[in-house]
């Protein structure tokens, strides 16, 4: 069952100089219980895409077009009031820095109780009981509900954020770099917890990350973004084993693999383009080693390579095979 | 410690039993009632050597003391005790003049090129500053040449065109190259690189790492490479030292340590090194909890509360950091 269907989502930021084309023609689908990784480097538009889904964008951002359907219901044109009902209950988000996302002067337990009571008609006592349960779910001692964020370690804060995100049993959870600031071991613990919860509750999950390894460890499918566009999408194994787009191939080659040879891959030359003035044609053409005249003029369309695996590159057009 | 701290002429740096402790106040009311101060034992007895032209990696999680070690060997922090020999001279005995000279020889590169560069200084001013402070160049022309050379060495093309640019006009990768250029301009022998690529995107990381390795190959610069990322450590360094709570718990050839880790902590860290594959974490045994507070270091082996292989003896006696095989050092009773 398709939980979330995004079609041609385009979000621009308005600046004095013009529009920053941060996110253009993004289409995604998420099934129940499925985890999708949205990978990209900084400024590739992955966070903009995610914030567009829950409409938590800054004031100068404009969703120019596109449709977002949650459980078949269009939310692109809904009012703030209706959205508030959808957030947390239907779709929840875990932010990157737990220290910044939690209120430092309120007890962590109280913050979760508040979120629960806003979204569900339950008594204070019931909300407290649920909070203690949630703490147990994310493997924090329930006796610590009365502590403040600074009394928690980094990993525990992130667990508390997860507890808050799943408090109202959302169908979709978006994690925006949920493990980026954590130590490797704690990162593995948090990712393991997220996967357990997803399986148990059959939640759909979108993980936004710059780190391919996070995708490899948790996601069934992956969408690779570059300069505001999705360049390749497919099942995680397929994309890792047979990357098709030159950008994906370079990214995976840059990933140190301790099971392979010890060598330093060459980096991708140049820098990501300025999205105020994105290059014509394929947005990767300036850094692509295989670019030819057509790449600079014409935008590539998606080529379906195998079931669910597609990429947008002119070089792939000859090899349509399903 | 035994058999380890020998003088070796090939060594650029020899560190033995280095300790850096910080006193922390426990809070206003507590400080009224008691004179006791808590001691953070950030670095708690570290031994290693760094050969000429070697890349030694200090790897560990946050709070393991790797950055403090890096700063202490440059005397950016005063060690509490222990010895640091640079070319067979004890850096703790350096006077002002000698220290100045030493600091031209030994440079540091920080993690975040967005914070380590002065936003109001042009590229030229940033790289020329070390030359000015040390009164190295006699003429402006000479200074310009030195700056140009350093920018070139750091892999920035058309350096003269960059002279009047400000850091905000540069990309992340270029900024880190600028930081490297300002370390290179004094022609150092030793560079402490503190997480030099962890703020950079994957696609530009390789370029910076390659630059560092090339500088070692062409100029013989030695590196103390500090990172939390074991796969990076494996990729660029000759030897790896794994730190936990202020101590090195395993040290050896990079490839060997990663392929056949001996210490239970190293084994745990290696087991979570990501590989570019779909590998579910579900059902994988992970270490429980997080690194303890360095104020209350557990007695005996400091890793025993989290160690999956701990035995009662580990609680009682601290294991000695010793040579367990040829050129392979470890601190565990059972390796």
What spatial form of chain A do the alpha-carbon principal axes imply? globular
By CATH, the architecture of chain A is named 3-Layer(aba) Sandwich
Order of helices and strands of chain A: EEEHEEHEHHHHEHEHEEHHHEE
Give the topology string of chain B: H per helix, E per strand.
EHEEHEEHEHHHHEHEHEEHHHEE
Integer count of domains of chain B: 1
Briefly note the CATH topology name of chain B: Rossmann fold
State the helicity of chain B in percent bands.
25-40%
From the alpha-carbon coordinates, what is the Rg of chain A to the nearest angstrom?
A: 21 Å
Q: Which runs of chain A of at least 5 residues are low in confidence (pLDDT < 50)?
A: none
In round numbers, the mean pLDDT of chain A is: 89
Give the percentage of residues in beta strands of chain B. Answer: 15-25%
Tell me the CATH superfamily of chain B.
Answer: P-loop containing nucleotide triphosphate hydrolases
Question: Mind describing the biggest β-sheet of chain B?
Answer: 8 strands, mixed
Give the C-level CATH assignment of chain B: Alpha Beta
Q: Which segments of chain B are poorly predicted (pLDDT under 50) over 5 or more consecutive residues?
A: 1-8
